[in-house]
Amino acid sequence: MKIVFFLATIMLLFFIGLSTAKAQALIDLESGLVFTGYNDVRIPGDQGTLFSLKDDLNPKTEFFYRIRLNYTIKSRHTLSLLFAPLETKSEGSLANDILFEGVLFSANSEIAGTYKFNSYRLTYRYDIVKKARIEFGLGLTAKIRDAKIALSSPGLISEKKNLGFVPIINFRLMWKVNDKFGILLDGDALAAKQGRAEDVLIAATYKLGENSCIRAGYRILEGGADNDEVYNFALFHYASAGFSYTFKNTKKSNLKK
Asked: With b meaning 16 or more CB within 10 Å and e meaning fewer, what string describes 230-256?
């Protein structure tokens, strides 16, 4: 609830600032379908049973959405706030016993699995290249993950929650094929000894007007961690469509004649 309150406050300040800030503001909405590529789990990471929410259970195709707010200052400096929830469901039965977070699930029992990975990100990016047809920027994302993996069967339930902070490298490449069409490569990615995370979109864009743009493309979300507490590596494929609208400050200075 604290995270939701924080985001609501930021959004309020965002819209209040539209009338006063000397910056270009943008709201971006993304939605579509998400498919599980793989999702391997062992909890605890050093003692639990390794199983797959993709291969051992049957995952459902899920609907997703994302909301992003941007401020671009002096055409090159961009501040961005992203809310990207994700929750998938799996169900079925396992051929062997599963020890998950201290609870033993018997073989051949009906099991329902839940995988949640909500992401809250604050990004700063600087456009190194800003030309008529090509734009390229690099930045840093502060990511808060709100994650949960849960299993349940008749009379049994067990779950593992995790709330953590991860710094990630942000990048954006935009190629404007002409005045209307473009190709966008955008994402956050980082690999370290503790784990890795990649969230990358490639999409075709079409400019509807001076302030609005639509896109369609493919997003990949992949990553995980391997430690004594948790072993989990997952891959998700997104069929994505998006819409963005730019709020341009049209206020002019009052000049005395």
From this structure: bbbbbbbbbebebebebbeeeeeeeee
What is the phi/psi pair of residue 84, to 5°? -130, 85
230 DSSP assignment = -
Q: What CATH number has the domain bearing residue 208?
A: 2.40.128.90
Q: Where are the alpha helices (DSSP H) in the chain?
A: 2-17
3-state SS track over 139-178: EEEEEEEEEEEEEEECCEEEEEEEEEEEEEEEEEEEEECC
Whether 254 is covered by a domain: the verdict is: no
Token reading at 183: 């190709």
Domain that holds residue 162: 2-246
Could you read off the pLDDT of 136-175 as tens digits, one per residue? 999 999 999 999 999 999 989 999 999 999 999 999 999 9
Of 83, 73, 26, give the one whose Cα is nearest residue 212. 26
Q: Judge if pTM exceeds 0.90.
A: no
Per-residue pLDDT at 88 exceeds 70: yes
